[in-house]
Amino acid sequence: MQVYSPPLRDMRFVLHELHGSDVLRTLEGLEEVTPDLIDAVLDEAGKLVTEVLAPLNQSADQEGCTYENGVVRTPKGFKEAYKTFIEGGWNGIACDPQYGGQGLPASVNKLVEEMLCSGNLAFGICPGLTHGAYEALKAYASDDLKNRFLPKMVEGVWSGAMCLTEPQCGTDLGLVRTRAVPQADGSYKITGNKIFISAGEQDLTENIIHLVLARLPDAPSGIKGISLFLVPKFLPKDDGALGPRNGVLCTGIEHKMGIHGSSTCQMSFEEATGWLVGEPNRGMRAMFAMMNSERLSVGTQGLGLGEAAYQAAVAYARERLQGRALTGAKHPDKPADPIIVHPDVRRMLMTMRAYNEGCRALGGWVARALDLMEHASDPQTRRQAEDFTSLMTPIVKALFTDLGFASASMGMQVYGGHGYIRDHGMEQYVRDARIAMIYEGTNGVQALDLVGRKLPAHMGRYLRSFFHPVLAYIDAKMDDANLSPLIAPLGKAFGALQLATAHIAEKGLRDPDEAGAAATEYLRLFGLVALGYMWVRMADVAYEKRAGAGDDAAFYEAKIATARFYMDKLLPEVAALWGAIKAGKAATMGLDETLF
């Protein structure tokens, strides 16, 4: 049986103690966001997830979505849960009050999003996509489109979906064939087929707003000829009420390995009416506003599933009796000891814990940058925050989903034979987590984005947003008696990251295959160093606060112990990654393709 309790104490630690929530009140529009308000929001979100959404997770997985004659029905209980969700205002908590949102910080919203992903990922996909579509329209749509569509999307009675992939193109969107023909009234007629469209059709909302990539008749070939269009399922009337059905039809849904409660649709557009978003032939620029939002959200999915798997594994390890501790019986009154006494089980649980809490801290740092991008009054602060977010987006997406799947797999291993039995729910986490490594750009594509785009951008300017604060922190804490056992390995790993960065920049400039062959190892190396930096900072806070912590002393002791585990057992992987990067492309590219 799946168990999940929102990790509210750790979330508050990340927001208030590690990253300092007081900073939020200095930002324009967030002056009233107090720690008490944040805590109340997190408390209520936790109740929603545990009381309404999590109980539907296993049943939704087993029932799945159904398709008949263009209609998709979500699993039992989803419609009622979604009504509760939007009536509580959860769909718009981080949206602009101008469109009916609550204007809360992204750093709060991401923690709410994590809870949704832990409790019921399939349910959370639809509102997550709506928020991504909101971000793209808010940034690039005309005022008329924003005023017509955003209020109902923020409310949640209308949802959003992104329509990129076609049968002949996935990552290479320059191959898109969907056509857009201009009309005399300023609209366009959209014709084409899209596949793998999450929540492209469902019965939760009265309208679905599709953001569709298509080509104008005179568009240049390739990626520079792609435009973005808003195409609703139903055309709205002037008063905002639903009008006639548009030429949008779901022609089928995919039967996936996981996330069964969310429909993955094949969509057909037959002269559907749509409106241009942004500039002609520059649709990818606008769509990336949604894609980058979704990539951060998919990273959060990995974290959410990892946390749920960890909690279930801990509960099982405390209850399951098997064998005796290697150093003698720990529970002699029982026929055997619980498996949590065994070193290998501890290894898995500690690894999961270190990954989850490290990712939550790193995700909080990135979310804080999102808040600065949106609300800081100083242009330089906004630019630095944007640089950091751009750099970290592929790392968050790829690393968090890699580690989320690893945690789900380890959780299944803790359960042993019971792990792959459906009744316990652990195998669902494994199936759900594996998908997140693929959609919104495979993790290999994220690595190529990191080394091919983010590293060389603006002569390495993005890198400074990470390298400078980490180096300054290491220098400042080198002589700290408490932190020295942690600072030393962090400094060594950071040195390897610097060397790897220079190596890829030099080799990749001469031969792109060199950068491509090292990309995945480099992203993981970068991510592990980033988690190491977070763990040292968390230990720093814990050492400072544990003395007078009272009942919270155990929490801080656990932070310190987990930081030590991460630095001793997980961060050393950096050395192997650096060795693989130095080896170059030869072993990877040496075998002739005809010999595979």
Protein topology:
Layout: H1 8-18, H2 35-53, H3 57-63, E1 66-68, E2 71-73, H4 78-87, H5 106-140, H6 143-155, E3 158-163, E4 179-182, E5 188-198, E6 207-214, E7 227-232, E8 234-236, E9 242-245, E10 248-253, E11 264-277, H7 283-319, H8 343-375, H9 379-415, H10 426-436, H11 443-454, H12 461-477, H13 484-510, H14 512-545, H15 553-570, H16 573-582, H17 586-589
Parallel strand pairs: 3-6
Antiparallel strand pairs: 1-2, 4-5, 5-11, 6-7, 7-11, 8-9, 10-11
Helix pairs in contact: 1-8, 2-5, 5-6, 5-7, 5-8, 7-8, 7-9, 7-10, 8-9, 8-14, 8-15, 9-10, 9-11, 9-12, 9-14, 11-14, 12-13, 13-14, 13-15, 13-16, 14-15, 14-16
Task: Tell me what you see in this structure.
The chain has 17 helices and 11 strands. The protein is an alpha+beta fold. The strands form 3 sheets. Strands 3, 4, 5, 6, 7, 10 and 11 form a 7-stranded mixed β-sheet that branches. Strands 1-2 form a two-stranded antiparallel ribbon. The protein has a two-stranded antiparallel sheet with strand order 8-9. α1 crosses α8.
Helix content: 55-70%
The overall strand count is 11
End-to-end Cα distance, whole Å, is 43 Å
SS-based structural class?
A: alpha+beta
> Helix segment count?
17
Query: How can the largest sheet be summarized?
Result: 7 strands, mixed
Gyration radius over CA: 24 Å
Strand fraction equals 5-15%
- The shape, in one word, is globular
Order of helices and strands: HHHEEHHHEEEEEEEEEHHHHHHHHHHH
Low-confidence stretches: none
Mean of residue pLDDT values = 96
Oligomer: single chain
